[in-house]
Amino acid sequence: MTEQSTTSRTQPPPLPLGIEGAKRLIREKLNLVVDETDPVMVSVLLHQVFLSDQARQQEIFLEELKQLLEQSGQEMTGAVKQSLHSLTGGTFRDILETTLAASAHHVRQSTENHLKLTAVIKRYTVVNLIFTFLVWAAVAALAFVFK
């Protein structure tokens, strides 16, 4: 992994529009001039905050996923080493029983890891839904206040 790709992962992606970009787009497309105190600029700002928070949440999620996958890989590596060790000394029946036990353990571990990952995904989905709702509620409240 290059230094550049590592750095780009630790920082949230650049925000797509920005306040000045939104003002310029409104001026170009609608032929309207707005300033920073216009209610539509508040919604742009809230949206930027939401995008920034979402990028940070995705980074946290990716880190948790990475740790989960590393843990699973280490456990599987240990089980394979144990199986290989049992292959060097023992009867065929012992080898078969050890291999089947290790396989059953991996199936249980994979199921547990899948459930953990599903729980993490659900948690971040709920958080994103809450942020989306709050942004739209704020925009609606601002539209009502400045109406």
Overview of the molecule:
- The chain is mostly helical.
- It has one domain.
- Helix content is 85%, strand content 0%.
- The protein contains four helices and no strands.
- It has helices at 3-10, 18-30, 39-88, 92-145.
- The longest helix has 54 residues, at 92-145.
- The termini are far apart.
Helicity range of the residues?
over 70%
> What is Rg?
26 Å
Strand tally, please? Answer: 0
Task: Specify the number of helices.
Answer: 4
Q: What is the succession of H and E elements?
A: HHHH
**Major beta-sheet overview:** none
Structural class by helix and strand composition: mainly alpha
Query: Which stretches are low in confidence, meaning pLDDT under 50 for 5 or more residues running?
Result: 1-8
Distance between the termini: 52 Å
Tally of individual domains: 1
Beta-strand percentage?
Answer: under 5%
Mean pLDDT: 78
The shape, in one word, is: rod-shaped
Describe this protein with a few key phrases.
147 residues, mainly alpha, disordered N terminus
List the topology elements.
Layout (H helix, E strand, L loop, with lengths): L2 H8 L7 H13 L8 H50 L3 H54 L2
Helix pairs in contact: 2-3, 3-4
Summarize the structure.
The protein is mostly helical.
